[in-house]
Specification:
alpha/beta; 5-stranded mixed β-sheet; 17% strand
């Protein structure tokens, strides 16, 4: 049984709301003012809150603001009940995080429709969150041991061979074993580097001073850097002939090192998840609104659900497509772009193509 908290200083109106909701199978709790309503919401988290706007001492806006600032109650669906119908009043409530507005007087059908709609949406969000949590748990269970143990096993096995056969070993074989140790070490190093970087980005996102300093960075003439990194990744993949570039220039609001990292991750993925002989097309278009970088490939592609689930330690179809890495590269690129106030979106058709679009705000060139 879903519980609805009703906060309203009009006892007669509140009683009618209780009667209607209870007759439809809901459990209800009432509060005669904002202070008591907030206390009840924090003591026993309801499934949904209906709240009047105009109440003495502690009004509906203050109740909502306090709820949204508390992580425990931040996601509880919240519907305002109000006689105020000015656009500015509605907008103020929505900006504070209200999910819906019902203008008094409203019908029983309108109230029930709004309540059911918000609860259905909340149930869907919860279901999606649980699915993502399960996928993340499964990914962590498989990826972390695999990504740590595989290179470690390679290093330990190579060292064991060297200890046993070093005195009589051919130099070429010894160098090959050394190369294997170095490659395994690099793989471990990259895993640790990505983990630390992702943690650093999350800390920065929650530190206003760090974020402000970060967003003051800029990069002049990114065209050369895009060309250089694209060619490096194409050569690394043995696919220089597959690379197609069509670039304009601009001044971007991002540091060179972070832009380098974003490019490296996105372009590497384009080559990694597409077949040799298919084009990887990179375009950069500048206009009055900003600079749009597009990286397109004709590869594996992703589903809508996979795109929505992009995050650290998430790999898709790992059981079907064996691959190295912990699934952090694209998550890091996306987080970096967002920290600068830009946007990274992905359009994809499974088994056909993927296009990553990064929309940057631009700055005027330095004098």
């Amino acid at each position: 049984m879903k519980q609805v908290l009703v906060i309203d200083d009009d006892a007669t109106f509140q009683e009618s709301i209780h009667y209607l909701l209870q007759s439809e199978g809901f459990s209800t709790v009432g509060a005669p003012d904002g202070t008591i309503g907030l206390k009840l919401a924090q003591q026993n988290i309801p499934d949904l809150i209906l709240c009047d706007v105009q109440m003495p001492d502690f009004d509906g806006y203050q109740v909502l603001q306090a709820l949204r600032q508390n992580p425990v109650t931040a996601t509880v669906p919240f519907i305002f009940l109000t006689g105020k119908n000015r656009r500015s009043d509605l907008r103020h409530g929505m900006n504070l995080g209200a999910d819906d507005y019902l203008i008094k007087p409203f019908s029983a059908e309108e109230l029930l429709a709004a309540v059911n709609r918000r609860l259905e949406k909340q149930s869907l969000l919860h279901s999606q969150s649980q699915k993502q949590l399960t996928e993340l748990r499964n990914s962590l269970t498989y990826i972390i041991p695999h990504e740590l143990l595989t290179p470690l096993t390679g290093i330990m096995a190579s060292v064991a061979v060297l200890r046993l056969h070093a005195p009589a070993m051919d130099q070429a074989i010894a160098l090959e074993i050394a190369d294997n140790i170095e490659e395994s070490g690099k793989r471990l190093s990259r895993l640790l580097e990505n983990t630390l970087l992702y943690a650093k980005l999350e800390i920065t996102a929650r530190d206003p001073e760090r974020l402000e300093r970060l967003q003051q960075e800029s990069l002049d003439h990114p065209q050369w850097l895009i060309t250089e990194i694209a060619r490096q990744q194409a050569v690394k993949a043995g696919r220089l002939d597959d690379l197609v570039l069509d670039l304009n220039d601009a001044v971007l609001a991002m540091s060179e090192s972070d832009f380098h990292r974003v490019l490296e991750e996105v372009i590497n993925n384009a080559f990694k998840f597409s077949e040799p002989g298919t084009q990887v097309r990179i375009t950069g278009t500048a206009d009055a609104d900003g600079f749009t970088l597009t990286v397109s490939d004709r590869g594996r592609g992703m589903t809508i659900e996979q795109i929505a689930s992009i995050g650290a330690w998430m790999q898709f179809d790992r059981m079907q497509h064996e691959q190295q890495g912990a699934g952090m590269g694209l998550a890091i690129a996306k987080r970096l772009v967002e920290l600068y106030g830009h946007r990274l979106t992905i359009e994809s058709i499974p088994d056909q193509q993927t296009t990553v679009l990064i929309t940057f705000a631009t700055r005027h060139p330095s004098p």
